[in-house]
Structure formats: structure tokens, C-alpha cells
Amino acid sequence: MNKYLEQLIELSKLDKEIDDFGPRIAKVEKMLKLSLDKERDLKLQAESFQADIADAKLKKAKNEAHLAELSSKLKDLTKKSALVKTAKEIKALQLEEEISKEQCDFANDEINRLDKIIDLKQTNISGLQEKIAEAVKEAEEIKASIDSQIQAIEEERRNVYQSKDELVVQMSQKILTFYQKIRKWAENTTVVPVKKQACYGCFMRMNDKTYASVLKQDDIVTCPHCGRILYKEIAEEAQA
Ligand SMILES: [Zn+2]
């Protein structure tokens, strides 16, 4: 086989491997991301419950302050009722007392309602805290396993880069430039096999003359349709 063609096949194989490392690492990292997202969502939910509790406590304090005001008001009304004389004055005081008592009832109902909310949210938070602890543990386990997987991939990547560097220094600059020009658009299908007399980049059938040149492997042959670099597929070689 033509030495340049051999180098081009090898170079395209290495370039494809290099391109595959990114998605491989991303796939592994995605597992961790999903786990961390779950942990974050649970924490946000717990924070939102905490905010609800703080809000309920604030409202409860306001109602309690109001109750204290009403209580001293009722005491004043009791004192006043001992002093008033006319029926009209008595009626007015009674009405005021009724209103204040209603307001007390309302404030007490509110406090009860808010207490229930606080209890419920606190129970929810306890449940969430268990889930958060589980999620943290899970994320840590995934992280440990991912770290070793990524290390292995990184080492493989270093080796492939090294092989590429070693190959590139041996190659002619002219051939390299030719390859890189096609690779700009053809990416990982820059150098493709020919199967059943068709280019495996564009899948178009080639004429007998081009096919014969590909089979000979004496020159670098490009596809007459798309311009990719062609080589004879190994399986066909075995058949021949
Ligand atoms: Zn083609």
C-alpha cells in the first residue's frame, strides 16, 4: 500500500478517536450532573418550606401582638363599663366589646391555622432532609466512580494524542495540508473505505477506472463525487 495512504488512514482513525473523547467524558459527567441536580432541587424545596415557616411565624407574631392589644382593650372596656350610666353608653360599650371579642376569635383562629402550617412544613422539611442526605451520599458515590472513569479516559486520550504527534512528524506537510483541507468539511469521514464499488462517505458508485485505482492502492485516490480520500476495505481484500 502507498505509504502516504497508510498514514492517512491511521491519522483519520486517530482523529476520530480524539473527537470521540469529548462525548465519552460528557456522558460520564452527565450522570453526576443529574445526581447533583436532584440534590439541588431538594435543597431548594427545603429552602422554600423554610421561607413559608418564617412567613407563618411572622404572621403569627403579628396576630399575637394584636391579641395583646385586644386583651388590654377589653380590660379597659370592663373598667369603663363600671363608670357609664346611660343605656346608650352601655350599649355602645357592649358593641365595642363584642367587636373586640370577635377580633380575638379571629386572631386565635389565625394563630391555630398558622401553627398547623408551621407543623406541616416542618414535617415536610424533615422528610426532605432524609432525601437530601441520600442524594448527597449518592452524588459522592457517583463522583468517586466518575473520577476514576475520567482518569482512565484522560490517559487513553494522552496516548492517542501521543500516537498522533508521532505520526504527524513522519508525514509530509503537503499530504497533511491536503488531508486537513478535506477534513474541514468531511470531519471524521475524510478517509473512507470503498465497499461494493461505492464511496462510504457519499455512498455514490464510482466508475471502474477509479475503482481499479483504489484497489491497486498505489496512489492516493479521492472520490470523484465528493472528494474524500478512498481506500480499499479490508473485507474486500479478503474476498479477493
Ligand atoms: Zn464520495
Core attributes:
single chain; 240 residues; mainly alpha; Helix Hairpins; 2 domains; four-stranded mixed β-sheet; Zf-RING_7; coiled coil; Oxidative_Scav/Glycosyltrans; C4-type zinc ribbon domain-containing protein
Describe the SSE topology:
Layout: H1 3-83, H2 87-170, H3 173-186, E1 191-195, E2 198-199, H4 208-216, E3 221-222, E4 229-232, H5 234-239
Parallel strand pairs: 1-4
Antiparallel strand pairs: 1-2, 3-4
Number of individual domains? 2
CATH classification class of the largest domain = Mainly Alpha
Poorly predicted ranges: 236-240
SSE ordering: HHHEEHEEH
Classify the beta-strand content into a percent band. Answer: 5-15%
Radius of gyration: 40 Å
CATH architecture of the largest domain: Orthogonal Bundle
Q: Structural class, please?
A: mainly alpha
What's the number of extended β-strand segments?
4
List of distinct ligands in this structure: zinc ion
Protein name: C4-type zinc ribbon domain-containing protein
Domain C4-type zinc ribbon: 198-230
Keywords: Coiled coil
InterPro entries: Oxidative_Scav/Glycosyltrans, Zf-RING_7
Characterise this structure.
There is one protein chain. With 240 residues, this protein is mainly α. The chain folds into 2 domains: 3-170, Helix Hairpins, CATH 1.10.287.1490; 174-239, no CATH class. It is 81% helix and 5% strand. The chain is built from 5 helices and 4 strands; from the N terminus they run αααββαββα. The chain has helices at 3-83, 87-170, 173-186, 208-216, 234-239, and strands at residues 191-195, 198-199, 221-222, 229-232. Strands 2-1-4-3 form a 4-stranded mixed sheet. β3 and β4 (229-232) form a beta hairpin. The radius of gyration is 40 Å and the shape is rod-shaped. The two termini are 15 Å apart. Residues 236-240 have low confidence and may be disordered. It binds zinc ion.
